[in-house]
Design brief:
This protein has 266 residues and is an alpha/beta fold. The protein has 2 domains: 229 residues, TIM Barrel; 28 residues. Helix content is 42%, strand content 14%. Strands 1-2-3-4-5-6-7-8 form an 8-stranded parallel β-barrel, surrounded by 7 helices. Helix 2 crosses helix 4, helix 6 packs parallel to helix 8 and helix 8 runs parallel beside helix 9. The chain is globular. The protein starts with 6 loop residues before the first helix and ends in an 11-residue tail after the last helix. Bound molecules: 3-methyl-2-oxobutanoic acid.
Length: 266
């Protein structure tokens, strides 16, 4: 297995023009699979509120839940950079609380960095966390924690004013000390312009191919979550169907006495 992925390595990729791969994972078995596949960054995303916990939004997810999942993921990972996602109300109140909670991801969760949804009013949080030597990724564009303010999960930066605000926000996040940007749900031309305008790497989700790297939610890629499916998702396998077939077969074999056979008995 290759050496551990570091923040400087991720930043070098931009200058070298080598793409960055990132996926979410929330527990030990999936984190092992993702890590063994050689993915560069594993994000313990607050998307777990939707794909694991069954909520309609990420808003109910707590800092303690995020630390619990980050710790499981960190225990599995030998290669990837692990990033913990700061949940709603873990950083909004003050810079001090943001630093304290970011620190928990490293100290208790074993992560190497944090990510937060950084609207312009949250840039001081990025600066405060970075000043505490905690690497921080700023999340721009469609910000799921702002679902009510946005009036739904809507593509951002579609008009010239919105695109300019995103570009300004990206530059300000870089100036505040973010080591990378996550750009979600913006037109590909806007993501391309941001990627060209900043010297830190950009990781896109629903932001086109011009970003320095790509991220997707693991349960979407695997076909484990089918309750809604935005245009940017590519399902590489239908695990839900495969698991359902196996579970049904087990049920049938118990019912008709085929399982356990002598082979599975002492
Ligand atoms: O929580 C999450 O999984 C995210 C996605 C945008 C990758 O932030």
């Amino acid at each position: 297995m290759a050496a551990r992925v570091t923040i400087p390595e991720i930043q070098r990729r931009k200058t070298e023009g080598r793409r960055i791969t990132m996926l979410t994972a929330y527990d030990y078995p999936f984190a092992r699979i993702v890590d063994d596949a050689g993915i560069d960054i594993i994000l313990v995303g607050d998307s777990l509120g939707i794909v694991l916990q069954g909520h309609a939004t990420t808003l109910p997810v707590t800092i303690d839940q995020m630390i619990y999942h980050t710790e499981m993921v960190s225990r599995a990972v030998k290669h990837a950079l692990v990033i913990g996602d700061m949940p709603f109300m873990s950083f909004q109140i003050s810079d001090d609380e943001a630093v304290r909670n970011a620190g928990r991801f490293l100290q208790e969760g074993g992560a190497a960095a944090v990510k937060l949804e950084s609207s312009p009013s949250m840039l001081s949080r990025v600066a405060a966390i970075a000043a505490a030597d905690i690497p921080v990724m700023a999340h721009l564009g469609l910000a799921p924690q702002s679902v009510h303010k946005m009036g739904g999960y809507k593509v951002q930066g579609r008009d010239a004013g919105g695109a300019q605000r995103l570009l300004d926000g990206a530059k300000r996040a870089e100036d505040a000390g973010a080591f990378a940007l996550l750009i979600e749900g913006v037109p590909m031309a806007v993501a391309r312009d941001i990627t060209r305008a900043v010297s830190i790497p950009t990781i896109g989700i629903g932001a086109g191919a011009a970003c320095d790297g790509q991220v997707i939610v693991l349960h979407d890629l695997l076909g484990l979550f089918d309750e809604f499916s935005p245009k940017f998702i590519k399902r590489y396998v239908n695990l839900r169907e495969i698991i359902s077939t196996a579970v049904t077969q087990y049920k049938d074999e118990v019912m008709n006495g085929q399982f356990p056979s002598e082979k599975e008995s002492y």
